[in-house]
From TrEMBL:
Superkingdom field: Eukaryota
InterPro entries for the chain: CHAT_dom
Domain CHAT: residue ranges: 5-63
Protein name per the record: CHAT domain-containing protein
Cross-referenced Pfam families: CHAT
Length: 65
């Protein structure tokens, strides 16, 4: 696995951290992440530099819980 390989599992295909980082989600006011590990990096993957919640922040979502 390389950097940006974390992903949300969607119905049709995974939504990767790279996909999220390339989006402009600034019109979205709120994101609620109900999975326990979405705001935690994976310490076993040393090249995974940011977690999914941070990716949403980079995509300019206003608030993330």
């Amino acid at each position: 696995n390389g950097p940006f390989q974390s992903a949300f599992l969607m119905r049709d295909q995974p939504l990767s951290l790279l996909d999220i980082a390339q989006m402009n989600l600034s019109r979205h006011q709120f994101a609620f992440l109900s999975a326990c590990e979405t705001a935690v990096g994976d310490f076993s993957m040393h090249d995974e530099v940011i977690h999914l919640a941070a990716g949403l922040q980079f995509a300019r979502v206003k608030s993330i819980v």
